[in-house]
Design a protein that fits this description.
This protein is an alpha/beta fold. Helix content is 25%, strand content 27%. The chain has a single domain, classed as Nitrilase/N-carbamoyl-D-aminoacid amidohydrolase (4-Layer Sandwich). The strands form three sheets. The chain has a six-stranded mixed sheet with strand order 6-5-4-3-1-15.
């Protein structure tokens, strides 16, 4: 399976529409990949809180339209990162979109854990409630976003729901880059899953971004890691390694806490 992570550079002088066009063209250039992944809130910037309401859009808004056409042109599954979604009720959400190779919306995930400690995203956006997985021909994706990476119970729940590859778009700040790498590897090891974590470059509202998108295998080995700038990280991996790892080293079968059922 081939995955391309598009580590998009955020330039605050670039319009949202211009960035959509540029990113759509980059998606088209990934024809031949099985899965393309974009970062969190790449249209606005994850720390550009003042722009959330201004740029909020419905699920079938301009970002979906541009990315659906690009996914269809390239013939790829596209995790289109996340957008500031305005729901029909008017609530804002940090929502990830997954599109099929025909450009259809396969899934939408509203970020459950909002960052900000009672400010920023934590007060401006609603919290998602639902776990979301997406079945691809080669693997089952489990969806999470940025700050979610700090909450292992979410990822274990995704694995219980069948996830084999955990996809994490992010707008992770540079000052906590070591946490980003450490947590991505930890989530891979403890869940015996691949982790595809896609960040941004540049700065969001003056907050320098970590970059360093990363692909980790079920043993915690880093299969590929980007640098700090705008970059496309492409990695080939064998999705069947998840089943092999879980069979040969069946750690998950020894769980006690958090497992229900008479056999425990």
């Amino acid at each position: 399976m081939r995955a391309s992570l598009l580590q998009i550079g955020i330039d605050e002088g670039e319009s949202v529409e211009s960035r959509r066009r540029r990113v759509a063209e980059s998606v088209r250039e990934q024809a031949g990949a099985d899965l393309v992944v974009l970062p969190e809130l790449w249209t606005t910037g994850a720390f550009a809180h003042r722009r959330f309401a201004e740029e909020a859009e419905p699920l079938d808004g301009p970002t979906y339209e541009a990315m659906a056409e690009a996914a269809s042109d390239a013939g790829v599954w596209l995790h289109a990162g996340s957008i500031p979604e305005r729901s029909p009720e008017g609530t804002l959400y940090n929502t990830s979109l997954v599109l099929s190779p025909s450009g259809e919306l396969a899934a939408a995930y509203r970020k459950i854990h909002r960052f900000g400690f009672d400010k920023g995203e934590a007060v401006l956006m609603g919290a998602g409630r639902d776990l979301v997985t997406v079945r691809l021909p080669e693997t089952v994706l489990g969806l999470a976003t940025c700050y979610d990476l700090r909450f292992p119970e979410l990822f274990r729940s995704l694995v219980d729901a069948g996830a084999q590859t955990l996809v994490v778009p992010a707008g992770w700040p540079e000052r906590r880059r070591e946490h980003w790498t450490l947590l991505a590897r930890a989530r891979a090891v403890e869940n015996q899953s691949f982790v595809l974590a896609c960040g941004t470059a540049g700065a969001h509202a003056g907050v320098p971004q970590a970059g360093h998108s990363i692909v980790v295998d079920p043993w915690g080995e880093v299969l590929g890691e980007a640098g700090p700038g705008e970059e496309v990280l492409t990695v080939d991996f064998d999705a069947s390694t998840v089943a092999t790892t879980r069979d040969r080293f069946p750690v998950l079968k020894d769980r006690v806490l958090g497992v229900s059922g008479p056999e425990h």
